[in-house]
Write a structure and sequence with these properties.
The structure is a homodimer.
Chain A: H1 11-19, H2 40-47, H3 51-58, H4 66-79, H5 85-92, E1 97-102, H6 107-123, E2 127-132, H7 137-146, E3 153-156, H8 163-169, E4 176-179, E5 190-193, H9 195-208, E6 214-217, H10 224-240, E7 247-249, H11 255-268, E8 274-277, H12 280-292, E9 302-307, H13 310-314, E10 320-323, H14 326-341, E11 352-354, E12 357-359, H15 370-383
Parallel strand pairs in A: 1-2, 1-3, 3-4, 4-5, 5-11, 6-7, 6-8, 8-9, 9-10
Antiparallel strand pairs in A: 10-12
Chain A binds a DNA duplex (30 and 30 nucleotides) through helix 3 and helix 5.
Chain lengths: ~375, ~375
DNA sequence: CAGATCAATGCAACCGGTTACATGAGATGC
DNA sequence: GCATCTCATGTAACCGGTTGCATTGATCTG
């Protein structure tokens, strides 16, 4: 590694700061930890005005003469003053920060949500404080509690938590929007994906496409998304294919679970001609494993997923799936939270349900060819709303 | 889509929650905006002690009698008191939060970094305040400034920014670790990926594998990662394949850029037998476009990428690439920051360089078959360090 | 039993800003 | 010229905790 030598713009400034301190004795090698940042008092003294005037000048409030303002701003520049947001938010009772608490931070799903949130938050000059409940309910409580005094509002996504349990942990004084969680019992505004109808539509489409026996690979048992998708599947089967009892294999949203399900299918000799996985990752794992066993997708068996992760477009054949616009989930929630912060009243009635879109790709293209299926599925979609 | 009516478990539960509130009289529709959170003063009054004692009891400091402590804790529970972190951090001069400023929030790369950071931060009870510079240098300054008083330290990733420019915006009093940025000139600790040697190794491996003419698809011009990778490529070519002048096609890390490069390759009739893209996404785009033109990978041309995004394993043939353990980047940086916060002194000399690993997959498997190549490349890898 | 020791507790001054209200000088009106 | 109004500025009380120091009452010591 090359070491360039050139002056570090530290010391002169450090010297300035040090001189202003009563004890200018021993110059430390490093400034960190000293925390000798200029305060508003310093600025006021430097400019020869009171703190009140300095504060007004800096915040561009009225009632400050031109020369006074200039003097203050000059002092600000000279001392390199940056207002202390922590102190400011204490009096203003406003932190310009919103807390985001997610179950974990794995994968594209969460980065997309965060991106959607940030997009809107950034426009309104809001910051994002990230909390991570790392799965456990206990940690969720801690995460929510630690947000007090740090944030103006909360975006919370507690997929595995029961409403009653959640209610006890929430601060009723803190504007909160729930992510991907129908919170009717709590009367909190929320944004959710219509997993039920999405799964229903996908099942219907598979049956429509000629499948006789659709097998569902389920998600984690206590995960609401997974449960809703499973319900959608079961109901669609019950309604359209009464005579056939729905087969459900266990899963946990992981690629391995998809592979495992495929192995069960192969070994168990289940008479399936279509697999509907509760998410794309499992569908991908399933396809891969089926392929290794010499079973062709879609000729021998059709496969569909849910989410439309970027990977889905790229595998071959490409995966048919329900597209969920994940960033929209985040941005919509953030917009609702902003309205809440503006004083609007939103309850569970203002819940926002995002309908996923069916994207037909290669894994459900039967012998008749991809084009025909796409058309058929698109038509199916059209007739819905 | 069929819209089924099915009962939503709403009203009974909502009623339950309302009943649990003390004032059953005129139940307010919403509590938000009232902001009537209990303060330490309230707790002290309720428990019949002074605020000082209440504070000590709550924080578990010594010098508090059993009965007193119990009274305070009872009051805490009764009033549902949660300490106001903002106020606390003002006096403690400690926020238990670290700021993370990233260029943008697109894609797996950033979610992995954040996950790595969170992993370590969470262990130490630290929170993450997310800042996003949205590309512009001006915003970077604003983002850094707005962190003052909110965070104890900073993790900063300014890929397109010149050190001199950066220096002016940094607060010398705030412990800072730079991400993916060799900050020697600033004498700040950093964690970076060894893009140069990674690219060098990959180029070498391709030539070694029998490529006569390797073409490089570059990343964004002012991006340091991209520039380092390009340098690695150029140097490797100069050293190993002196007689052949290196060909470099422009790119911007996007899938489209990879496709465009492929088109140039096809139209331009460049005599390339290997393509080394500056990142995986471009490699994927390139392969896809080559395939459409009837050019077979790897038989007609080998392709390699950089990053090892999840997608790389799943396309077919799977992509040979340099694996960067992105989450390690985040967790290592966070660990360094923690040491800084503990008072240790770290300069640029403590920079941490992560070496990427060559992962040989299908796109560089020649007619001789994948196994042989993997072995050859692995051997190559071995002899390197 | 007086005086020293010590633990538990209270008082009040912070942290670094904001802002209601007081002050006082200059402009205006009569 | 005096009362009044205006508006820039200063004073000080917050926000909600933490913490150094003083106070108090009880226990210990000789």
């Amino acid at each position: 590694m090359v070491r360039l030598s050139h002056e570090v713009p530290t010391n002169d400034l450090a010297a300035n700061l040090c001189n202003r301190l009563p004890s200018a004795a021993s110059a430390p090698l490093r400034l960190w930890g000293m925390g000798v940042m200029a305060t508003l008092r310093d600025v006021a003294r430097e400019a020869g005005v009171s703190v009140a005037t300095a504060s007004r000048a800096i915040n561009g409030l009225g009632n400050v003469t031109g020369p006074t303002r200039d003097a203050v701003l000059a002092a600000v520049k000279k001392l390199n003053f940056v207002p202390h947001s922590g102190a400011r938010s204490l009096t203003r009772r406003k932190t310009d920060t919103i807390g985001v608490i997610l179950p974990d931070l794995f994968g594209e799903f969460f980065s997309e949500i965060i991106r959607g949130i940030d997009l809107v938050a950034h426009e309104s000059g809001m910051h994002l404080l990230l909390g991570n409940m790392h799965g456990s309910a206990h940690e969720t409580a801690a995460a929510v509690a630690s947000m007090r005094g740090r944030v103006d509002g909360l975006l919370l996504m507690p997929p595995d938590m029961k409403p009653e349990l959640l209610a006890g942990h929430l601060d009723p004084a803190l504007p909160t929007v729930l992510l991907n969680y129908d919170a009717s019992p709590l009367d909190l505004p929320f944004v959710a994906v219509d997993n039920y109808h999405g799964a229903y539509a996908m099942t219907e489409a598979l049956l429509d496409r000629g499948a006789r026996q659709v097998v569902h690979i389920a998600g984690p048992k206590h995960n609401r998304d997974a449960r809703d998708r499973q319900r959608g599947f079961v109901d669609a089967m019950a309604r359209i294919a009464k005579e056939r009892s729905p087969v459900i294999l266990p899963g946990d949203f992981s690629e391995e679970a998809g592979q495992e399900a495929a192995r069960l299918l192969i070994q168990g000799q289940l008479p399936a001609d279509a697999v509907f996985a509760s998410n794309d990752l499992m569908a991908v794992g399933c396809i891969q494993q089926l392929g290794e066993a010499g079973i062709s997708v879609p000729r021998d068996v059709m496969v569909a997923g849910f989410d439309d992760i970027p990977l889905s477009r790229h595998i071959s054949p490409a995966l048919t799936t329900m597209q969920v616009k994940i960033d929209r989930l985040g941005s919509t929630a953030m917009m609702m939270l902003l309205r809440l912060l503006r004083g609007e009243t939103l309850g569970a009635a203002s819940g926002n349900v995002l309908t996923p879109t069916l994207i037909a790709r290669g894994t459900t293209a039967g012998p008749v060819g991809l084009a025909a299926v796409t058309k058929a599925l698109a038509a199916k979609e059209q007739e819905a709303p």
